[in-house]
Amino acid sequence: MEAKNKNINIEDIKVIQAPLAGISDVVFRSLIRKYNSNCLMTTEMISSEMLCNNPNPRIIEFNDFEYPLAFQLVGHKVDKMTKAAQILEPFASMIDINCGCPVKKVIVSGDGSAMMKTPELAFDIIQSIKQATNLPVSAKFRLGWTKDEENFIEFGKTLEKAGVSFVTLHARTRSQMYEGKADWKKIKLLVDELNIPVFANGDIKTINDAKNCLDLTGAKGVSIGRGIMGDFTLPYRIEKYIQDKIIIPEPDFNLKINMLKEHLRLEVEHMGEANGVKFMRKFYSYYISSLRNASKYRSRLVLMEKEEEILEAIDEILSIHNRNIG
Prior knowledge:
By secondary structure, this protein is α/β, with parallel strands linked by helices. The protein has 14 helices and nine strands. The protein has helices spanning 26-34, 48-53, 78-88, 104-107, 119-132, 152-162, 184-193, 207-217, 234-244, 253-271, 273-280, 284-287, 294-301, 307-325, and strands at residues 15-17, 41-42, 46-47, 69-74, 94-99, 137-142, 166-170, 198-201, 221-224.
């Protein structure tokens, strides 16, 4: 099966939905599209080894209305990464190479942000994929391995020479993981050095964050990940600001609760009740973060195992909220 309307116009991209392992599944991406975003969607990180061993894995599930849709590959073997890209070619708008994941189980084999230690290997992978497919290729990476080993400019130049269409820079080092503050000033340094578009990533959770980051860096656009959790309208609202300077208010608590209920329903339909309910536990704190005593309510929700029970508790939370502001 080949995807419909998978062509991509990179010039039109202002916002990228950043891949989030264990988060940005087909339901997550579909809900972003429901709220009118034209952002570039990205799948969860896909292991090239796994894909070559099982050319039809569940993780590449998609809907036609998700496009444009990038498929993100992780790996360090030229032959495996190339074969995986060929398997994905009928479905993908483009291939994104993960050179930024800092998680230990990924970097231990030389994948993810460990690729920044072997820029020549990243070069070979990108060139091989471009020669073997007709897909555009992008890459996401970090500032470097540690603060003393920041090589993002040299790494970016290497990828540019290899032929990537754009890069995304997460403005933290691997050693920082997701701690500390993203250093947007470093993104500007990369923008000034490259002739291809650079997208900014890290700590972009509001329209104001996007505005400040773009003003400072001059980046082509932004890549947002965790900011979307609990607010599927964020990509669209940022796009409207970038394109038209229109500021659309963030959703109120009632709309966030409706998003939560729909998200739960769709994940249960997708995974079955037991797995869907378990999967959703990581999202509750994002949806109800503005609520007084949010941690108390989250603690209750994560112990529940039935969809109906959770929906009743959510309605109770909404009722308490509306009484408090009434």
